[in-house]
Structures are given as C-alpha cells and as structure tokens.
Design goal:
Belongs to the phD/YefM antitoxin family. This protein is 64% helix and 14% strand. The protein is α+β, with helices and mostly antiparallel strands and 80 residues long. It folds into two domains: 2-38, YefM-like fold (3-Layer(aba) Sandwich); 41-79. A three-stranded mixed sheet has the order 1-2-3.
Length: 80
C-alpha cells in the first residue's frame, strides 16, 4: 500500500493512477480522515463480496458451497 499526501496527489494524478493499477493508495489528509484510492474493478469486487455476505443465509450457503468444492477437489486429488 502506498501512502501519499493530498498535495502530492493533486500534483501527480497520472503517477497516482499508475500506482492504483497495482495497489491501493492511502491519501493522508492533515485535517480530516484519510482517503483510500483503488481501482474501480477492485471496488466493485469488494462490493460484490459485501453483498454476498450481507445475510447469514447467504454466508451459510457460500460456506457450504466452499466445503463441497473442497471435498470434491480432495477426492479428485486422491484419485490422481
């Protein structure tokens, strides 16, 4: 993760966007909360995960699905 000041961000937007392609960026602000910059695709993926785990029913179903996939993988690996 990179940490940048707001002044640096303002004067180096192109460089900041290049950094965001490979990592998230923390913009430190003197008078307020900090700001996190990340790629839109990363943000959307995080939002999808939040949505999937938003209810206990969804979370339980996902856990069961993962356990099933792991069990099937272990059976396939043992056969090979």
């Amino acid at each position: 993760m990179y940490s940048l000041s707001a002044n640096y961000l303002a004067s180096h937007v192109d460089e900041v966007l290049e950094l965001a392609d490979s990592d998230e960026i923390l913009v430190t602000l003197d008078s307020s909360d900090n700001l996190m910059i990340l790629k839109e695709s990363t943000w959307r993926s995080l939002q999808d995960i939040v949505h999937l785990f938003a209810t206990s029913v969804n979370a339980e179903r996902l856990q069961q699905s993962l356990q099933q996939v792991r069990a099937e993988y272990l059976v396939e690996a043992a056969v090979e």
